[in-house]
Amino acid sequence: MDKAKLTLDKDYIAGKVDPRLYGSFIEHIGRAVYGGIYEPGHPLADDMSFRKDVIELTKELKVPVVRYPGGNFVSGYNWEDGIGPIEQRPKRAELAWFAAETNHVGVDEFATWAKRAETSVMMATNLGTRGAGAARDLVEYCNFAKDTYWSDLRIKNGYREPHNIKLWCLGNEMDGPWQICHKTAEEYARAACETAKVMKWVDPDIELVACGSSNSHMATYPQWEATVLDHTYDIVDYISMHVYYANHDDNTKNFLAKSMDMDAYIRSVIATCDYIKAKKRAKKDMMISFDEWNVWYHSFPENEKAVKWREAPAFNEDIYNFQDSLLVGSMLITLLRHADRVKIACLAQLVNAIAPIMTVPGGPAWKQTIYYPYLHASLYGRGVALQVLVDAPKYDCKDFTDVSVLDAVAVLSEGERGRELTFFAVNKGEDDLEITCGLRDFPGCRVIEHITMTHDDLKAANSPENPNNVLPARSNDYEINDGALLVRARGYSWNVIRLAVK
Ligand code: AHR
């Protein structure tokens, strides 16, 4: 059996974990909204046609914040289309995904859904076809109590209390030529700066996220970040990052190593932020909102007509296999390791479109493989992230060298359950791994449980017919001897080791 050693010190703090690291995302895309969170006539639909089963799963995941309504969708969106009597709302040809948008769900409905799902809204504004004016009006509509045109209209529409949305995105992926009204860095930076200014004049308590690059392969990266921050450093609170990985060439070792790319990407964005900080002699550090991340295979139907100009067409409904959940686990570990600078992250997305939760029209909701690492991190990964030194066998693969077979981080938390130390670890190798970790800083601790997720078939997935094919289970393969933890992690496995500490 291969061996690995972890070294832990309670003072070696990676950062305080902002609970919003476990955010998610719902866009008007495919069946995310219509048929996902909202399905009139479904046996479990509530009085506003929200699926109660989806709400329950969102609550189970303890999703702290959900980005809405896009994504690419937001760059062509008129938010006013989605308010007022539902039957009077316009149906539009939507140009981000070439679908028909009924506008039956808009900001009021989504804010209500968020309350029912015990989460909060991260609202994106349209900096594609629109700009500062529409963004300013939307903040007024959402956050002003009363006695202005937009706040009184919200009250007339049946929402007496303001929605109090405190986190806002200044557009989406504006560096991407696929974006409706894509901009150069200069064009975007100026628009974002002026929009930010008027939005904060309406509500000084909001926090703002400026668009970073769509991914690190964009030709304009990282000059885009430098230009945008040069114009907006003082007025925005976060710069966004997005990344999606896939295993198109069926190369498991290479695929599982992609969290190293995510790590390098975060480091270089931090470096760019710090360069602008130095240039401006600024005091504050720019934080990161990693507001889109996941595995994504871009599963579009072969027949374009099956989706084009349809209402809520089923597309991008990636089915995640066991191997995908391992990379999602490693990506969560990477985010935790950067908890000092990455304060917000959104698993993209939440329901049906590239999502951990799936729904059958008129039928049940079910959990994909990636649901589980996301659940475990959200439940047990709140507190202070500790850097763990990992000494494990390494491998080389197509795009990476010196890939550690073991990815690990620890989180020290204090809450209703008491004081806990939780290790999150992915064994990326096919062999079982004997992991040891000295616990000199945590005398008298005991293992609460070792949750592990593994499967003989890396391609195994869940489905509506077989929703429990890939599931986490408890392992008894651990011991604490002479103040050291010894755990056996199966080849290819996601592991959560929870310790009660004094
Ligand atoms: O999450 C799906 C899409 O991916 C989003 O709309 C866009 O921002 C990104 O390219």
Q: Which geometry do the CA atoms define?
A: globular
Determine the number of helices (DSSP H or I, runs of at least 4 residues).
10
Distance between the termini: 32 Å
Strand segment count = 26
The helical percent reads 10-25%
* Distinct small molecules: alpha-L-arabinofuranose
| Helix/strand/pairing category | alpha/beta
Report the portion of residues in β strands.
25-35%
Strand order of the largest sheet: 3-4-7-8-9-10-11-12
Q: Please state the average pLDDT score.
A: 97
Low-confidence stretches: none
What's the alpha carbon Rg, rounded to whole Å? 23 Å
Could you characterize the architecture of this molecule?
The structure is a single chain. This protein is of the alpha/beta class. It contains ten helices and 26 strands. It has helices at residues 52-60, 107-116, 132-143, 149-156, 185-202, 223-232, 252-256, 258-279, 322-337, 371-380; strands at residues 2-7, 13-16, 23-25, 65-68, 92-94, 99-101, 120-125, 167-170, 207-210, 238-245, 287-295, 342-348, 357-359, 365-367, 384-386, 389-391, 394-395, 403-404, 406-415, 418-427, 433-438, 446-454, 473-475, 478-481, 484-489, 493-500. The strands form six sheets. Strands 3-4-7-8-9-10-11-12 form an eight-stranded parallel β-barrel, surrounded by six helices. A seven-stranded antiparallel sheet has the order 2-15-19-20-26-22-23, with helices on one face. A hairpin with a 2-residue loop joins strand 24 and strand 25. The longest helix has 22 residues, at 258-279. The two termini are 32 Å apart. The model has no long low-confidence stretch (mean pLDDT 97). The structure holds alpha-L-arabinofuranose.
